[in-house]
Amino acid sequence: MLRRGFQLVKGLGQITGQKFSTGRNGITIRPLLSTGTQWDTGSPFQTIRPLTMSPWPFSTQPRDYSLPNASWSEEMKRLYDHYNALCEVEVEGGGKRKGPWRRLPSYNRTIKYATGGRCLSKVLQAKARLFTRNIEEQGAGFEYVVFSNKQEKRCVCVFQAGHLLEGPPGHVHGGAIATIIDSVTGTLASYLSGPVMTANLSINYRSPIPLGSVVLVHSSLERTEGRKTFVTCQVTSADGSKLHTEATGLFVSINVGHLFGA
Ligand SMILES: CCCCCCCC/C=C\CCCCCCCC(=O)SCCNC(=O)CCNC(=O)[C@H](O)C(C)(C)COP(=O)(O)OP(=O)(O)OC[C@H]1O[C@@H](n2cnc3c(N)ncnc32)[C@H](O)[C@@H]1OP(=O)(O)O
Questions:
Q1: Distance CA 65, CA 247 (A)
Q2: Which residues belong to the active site?
Q3: Contact between residue 142 and residue 176 where contact means Cβ atoms under 8 Å apart
Q4: Does the beta carbon of 200 sit less than 6 angstroms from any atom of ligand 1?
Q5: Ligand 1 pocket test: which of 110, 197, 223, 256 has the largest number of ligand atoms within 8 Å of its C-beta?
Q6: Residue-range domains of the chain with CATH
Q7: Which positions fall inside the Thioesterase domain (predicted)?
Q8: What are the tens digits of pLDDT across the range 156-173?
Q9: Could you give the CA distance from residue 144 to residue 106 in angstroms, rounded to a whole number?
């Protein structure tokens, strides 16, 4: 159980960019997501099935789902380029240095060993996938990339909602909107406060989101109180002129042992 806790903490560090202390040793973070390669199906009895074409197919790197793919619309790519450019700033005399923004990589499973939990068999645990990254067809589900700004304690997600997320005809399902809000606010809260769980999410749906459109999910820190991190969230059209959804979230810091019944 303790070993699992370490794996979880290290995995979080990789996702959030934080170095989580695991006690005496202060373990160095290294890629843990080695099962999520481009050729990986997640099954212990692997069927080789390429997700993307690569000149060297036997990559040991997991696929980063927050990078552009062929399904991204021009609008999605434009917004990606816009925020990506803010990740670096030009310095006098040429050259570049890190800017205030950071693109957060995104994988289809959070942690190699700590997925699923106590109620799943090992085989099912091996198959566990992050909810927002479990649709294989590019562009069909959640296409998104999160950029964070630690100084300003906020993040922005560029989100393109695919056709499998339909709720009302031609529009995005409210549960899918809640999912992306939970993911973005949860990512911000863990980026700022370390391991957290959603305690409360309150959502007001103001105007429907057309299926296939690109929207921005803005999330900011409101305040922290002890173990509690309060964040706000607005989903707007890509040009910011239309408010689609507003939300507030409460995230409670946890000891990772919480997830394993400690
Ligand atoms: C480790 C995960 C990290 C994820 C992030 C990874 C990085 C990014 C990676 C990939 C991107 C994807 C990101 C996805 C993000 C999704 C996150 C989720 O969906 S999480 C699943 C849904 N949430 C649950 O299942 C929680 C179930 N609830 C619980 O486990 C507990 O209730 C918990 C941990 C929330 C609190 O339990 P207690 O025993 O630790 O603490 P107590 O004492 O009850 O509460 C602490 C304080 O919070 C208040 N509080 C608790 N719940 C509240 C509520 N619902 N409303 C208002 N206040 C509440 C309490 O009144 C207390 O306040 P006072 O300190 O006394 O001032």
A1: 25
A2: 182
A3: yes
A4: yes
A5: 197
A6: 65-260 (3.10.129.10)
A7: 170-242
A8: 999 999 999 999 999 999
A9: 9
